[in-house]
């Protein structure tokens, strides 16, 4: 484990968080991040995954990529995305994920920090197209536990899968930094 990973683990513990479980072993995966109610979720998940000696990419709206913030976000694995063209956004991520080598993609299925009932299914498209595994990652502000969660198998039915995934998250009783912004059903 490198010094940066050790530092990230120390920082995570220093701010009161506990890392649950190991990193994903597969070369290609999508790790969902739920509940996404605050920009702080990105920092907590970054510290968690780096503390395990791993790197994950994270889709972030392009508007955040201005100097010097953009440089920092890119260094932390941020990938600028243009949300005005969802098809191009998905195509770009799929192309990056299909390149040889390891590619772990962390994303929030809610697609926003606001309360939203209908989660986005872009992760489903990405995972099914690339053959990547999907994990039910979480950051629970109630218990201050963060982890990559369990692996979930996808079918050819994104709506049914989303309903099942939201039910699994509901059963976890997670608390967002802003609980009023987290809706599972």
Describe this structure in words.
The protein is an alpha/beta fold. It has one domain: Rossmann fold, CATH 3.40.50. The chain has 6 helices and 9 strands; from the N terminus they run H-E-E-H-E-H-E-H-E-H-E-E-E-E-H. The strands form 2 sheets. The protein has a 6-stranded mixed sheet. The protein has a 3-stranded mixed sheet with strand order 1-8-7, covered by helices on one side. Helix 3 (69-75) links the parallel strand 3 and strand 4 (78-81). The protein is globular.
Q: The CATH topology is what?
A: Rossmann fold
Total separate domains: 1
SSE ordering? HEEHEHEHEHEEEEH
Fraction in helix: 25-40%
Structural shape: globular
Largest sheet: 6 strands, mixed
Jot down its keywords.
single chain; 185 residues; alpha/beta; Rossmann fold; six-stranded mixed beta sheet; three-stranded mixed beta sheet; 6 helices
Set down the secondary structure blueprint.
Blueprint: H1 3-14, E1 18-20, E2 28-32, H2 40-51, E3 57-61, H3 69-75, E4 78-81, H4 86-98, E5 103-107, H5 122-130, E6 133-135, E7 138-140, E8 145-147, E9 151-152, H6 158-172
Parallel strand pairs: 1-8, 2-5, 2-6, 3-4, 3-5
Antiparallel strand pairs: 6-9, 7-8
